Amino acid sequence: MSLPARDLRPAELSRFAWPAAFVAVAAMTFGYLHDRATPAPASEVRVVHPTPTVLKDLRELARLETLALHVEKVVDVKDHQTRLYGLVDAEDSLLFVATGEVVLGVDLGKLTESDARLDAATGTAYLHLPAPEVLSTRFDEPHSYVHARATDLLAKRNEALESVARRDAIAAFEAAAKDPKAIARAKEQAEKQLRALAKGWGARELIVTWGGGAAPAAML
Predict the structure, then answer these.
(1) Which secondary structure element, helix H or strand E, spans residue 94, and what is its range?
(2) Positive or negative CA dihedral for 114, 119, 123, 128?
(3) 17's torsion region: left (phi>0), alpha (psi -120 to 50) or beta?
(4) Is the pLDDT of residue 200 over 70?
(5) According to the model, what pLDDT value does residue 217 have?
(6) Does residue 189 or residue 42 have the better pLDDT?
(7) Tens digit of each residue's pLDDT (9 = 90 or more) over 56-79
(8) Cβ-count burial of 34 within 10 angstroms (0-12 exposed, 13-18 middle, 19+ buried)?
(9) What are the residues whose beta carbons fall under 8 Å from the beta carbon of 159, sequence distance 6 or more?
(10) How high does pLDDT run on average in the chain?
(11) DSSP of 156-214, one letter per residue?
């Protein structure tokens, strides 16, 4: 059984209209605030202008690398200081562990025309070489580090101590490369490499002399 329809009076209509209007206004307000709270993602445009690479120097290298030494050195450096008019001694110290590599070899750029000759009758080549020398020295930075640092209460921290330790380590690396055993091994490797090259050039044998001895007289 259906209920009879009835007309709504203006007062009753207004009672339903206010909640509907409130919902509509609230929906628009919340939507506006949501749009304000979520800004559009910013876009970034990065422009890189190419610049020319300037070649400042060009050098021809004629170096024969024959031996690489892996070296380690612990350097202990101290800065002794006096305070209170010389009445108190203070100290700033650093213990540095240095690791690096030294490359030995022969600078072939020092050769002259009189340092090489070939005996055509026997097929023997003669070569007079300068003594092996340090061609390069480098730090192994990932494995070099300050092991300990101590500064007395009245001492002033010396920020140059690590630089001093690094210089001492480089000097120790190069001194290790001048060891007679290292020099002998560098010579041995140089002769081995040059003999292979000489045979590739057609020589049957290569005789190498080193240092300040008498050099061959003719060009190879």
Answers:
(1) strand 88-107
(2) negative
(3) alpha
(4) yes
(5) 38
(6) 189
(7) 555 566 889 999 999 999 999 999
(8) exposed
(9) none
(10) 78
(11) PP-TTHHHHHHHHHHHHHHHHHTSHHHHHHHHHHHHHHHHHHHHHTT-SEEEEEETTSP
pLDDT recorded at residue 187 = 94
Does 1 have pLDDT greater than 50? no
CA angle 8/13/14 to nearest 5° reads: 150
Per residue in 156-183, pLDDT (tens digit) is: 999 999 999 999 999 999 999 999 999 9
State which amino acid sits at residue 187: K
Q: Where are the domains of the chain?
A: 63-210
Q: Read off the tokens for 54.
A: 């300037």
**pLDDT on residue 52:** 72
Between CA 206 and CA 36 the distance in angstroms is 86
Contacts of 210 (CB under 8 A, 6+ apart): 128, 129, 130, 131, 187
Return the structure tokens found at 142. Answer: 């990932």
Alpha-carbon dihedral of residues 79, 84, 85, 91, nearest 10 degrees? -10
